């Protein structure tokens, strides 16, 4: 924290620092046990009427009374990664968008409106990577109208926790009553260690998702629109580990895009978990991605899936940023179905039956 020449803590931030990453020390809440002070690091998203709002990397918003401040300063926009590939938020956001394309899109300034008949939030939400070219309220009105014309709820995908992410937009959406429904994390790591984790033998790779692959995929009755989304991307590969019957023992999906490879939809027969099948699928896909010139990888994982996080950390992955989906605060959506969960990211070869290790949305 900031310490003056006299050795006293000082508050060296003002309302003019809204939008900057700050570190704040405040007095603990009355009656709180333990430390007398509480430290908070995040983006200062507002300072109004004696209350500061700080958005943490996870997207959590912390309210702090100005009267409780003990010290504060502006800190670097994002800490340097100690390992793994370097990447900006915008680069990863665009790579992730290309790996899961909608069937229909339209620009709104530097925003992209995306729709795919409700199959997954990510393919049916706005990607706001700049200025929409309109005042925010006018842009949100266009967003609501565009999705309403398609019989879909309006969603905006945002991110927090890295240089160039959208903490201020998140705060503005929350002020207007938009509701955050989904939060996950995007992790990145070097590709070669994934390929070295297992031999990858017994894995069949294909350019298309055949009936067997779809039989293991967690969404049943996949539509033509869903198949288009699944097959979208610069260089798409589907992995299958044959089972004893018609349904594969394990599956996975990878999209190679320049130096990046994405892993998703890795699912394992619950009866065959703890046998390394997910790792085998990932290794086979990683080898193919290396052959195509990729060197880095990304995937998406839920913050509460400790087993998946441990597995990916062991492969050298680490969290880059969190992402969120905000839904428009409509009094009623006319019975429109909400988008289904997005494509599953790498699953786990262990643990009780559940959805795979990450559920990007």
Strand order, main sheet: write it out: 9-16-10-15-14-13-12-11
Helix content: 10-25%
Oligomer kind: single chain
H/E topology pattern: EEEEEHEEEHEHEHEHHEEEHEHE
* Mean pLDDT score: 86
Shape: globular
- Helix count equals 8
Strand content: 25-35%
Give the total of beta strands. 16
Class from helix and strand fractions: alpha+beta
Provide the gyration radius in Å. 22 Å
Give unreliable regions as ranges: 1-7, 332-338, 340-345, 347-361
Distance between the termini: 37 Å
Biggest sheet descriptor: 8 strands, mixed
Overview of the molecule:
- The chain is an alpha+beta fold.
- It has eight helices and 16 strands.
- It has helices at residues 89-98, 136-148, 167-175, 192-195, 211-216, 224-230, 277-291, 306-314; strands at residues 21-27, 37-48, 51-55, 61-65, 69-74, 104-108, 111-115, 126-128, 155-160, 179-190, 204-206, 235-241, 250-257, 260-268, 296-301, 318-327.
- It has an eight-stranded mixed beta sheet, sandwiched between helices. Strands 4-3-2-1-5 form a five-stranded antiparallel beta sheet.
- Helix 7 (277-291) links the parallel strand 14 (260-268) and strand 15.
- The longest helix has 15 residues, at 277-291.
- The chain is globular.
- Residues 1-7, 332-338, 340-345 and 347-361 have low confidence and may be disordered.
């Amino acid at each position: 924290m900031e310490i003056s020449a006299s050795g006293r803590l000082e508050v060296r931030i003002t309302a003019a620092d809204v939008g900057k990453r700050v570190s704040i020390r405040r007095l603990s809440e009355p009656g709180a046990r333990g430390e007398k002070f509480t430290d908070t690091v995040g983006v200062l998203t507002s300072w109004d009427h004696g209350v500061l709002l700080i958005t943490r990397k996870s997207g959590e918003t912390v309210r702090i009374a100005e009267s409780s401040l003990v010290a504060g300063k502006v800190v670097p926009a994002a800490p340097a990664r100690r390992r793994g590939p370097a990447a900006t938020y915008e680069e990863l956001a665009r790579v992730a968008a290309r790996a899961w394309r909608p069937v229909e899109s339209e620009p709104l300034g530097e925003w992209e409106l995306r729709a795919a008949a409700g199959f997954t939030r990510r393919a049916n939400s706005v990607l706001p990577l700049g200025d929409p070219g309109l005042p925010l309220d006018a842009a949100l009105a266009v967003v609501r109208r565009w999705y309403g014309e398609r019989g879909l709820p309006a969603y905006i995908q945002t991110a927090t926790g890295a240089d160039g992410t959208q903490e201020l937009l998140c705060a503005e959406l929350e002020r207007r009553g938009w509701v955050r429904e989904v939060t996950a994390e995007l992790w990145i790591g070097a590709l070669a260690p994934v390929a070295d984790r297992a031999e990858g033998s017994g894995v069949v790779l294909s350019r298309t998702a055949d009936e067997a692959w779809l039989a293991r995929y967690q969404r049943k009755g996949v539509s033509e629109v869903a198949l288009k989304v699944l097959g979208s991307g610069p260089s798409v590969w589907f992995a299958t580990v044959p089972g004893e019957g018609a349904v594969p023992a394990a599956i996975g999906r990878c999209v190679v895009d320049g130096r990046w490879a994405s892993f998703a939809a890795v699912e394992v027969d619950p009866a065959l978990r703890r046998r390394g099948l997910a790792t085998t699928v990932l290794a086979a896909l990683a080898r193919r991605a290396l052959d195509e010139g990729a060197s880095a990888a990304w995937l998406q994982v839920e913050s509460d899936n400790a087993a998946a996080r441990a597995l990916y950390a062991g492969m050298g992955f680490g969290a880059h940023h969190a992402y969120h989906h905000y839904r428009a605060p409509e009094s009623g959506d006319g019975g429109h179905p909400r988008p289904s969960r997005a494509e599953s990211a790498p699953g786990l070869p262990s643990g009780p039956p559940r959805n795979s290790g990450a559920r990007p949305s």
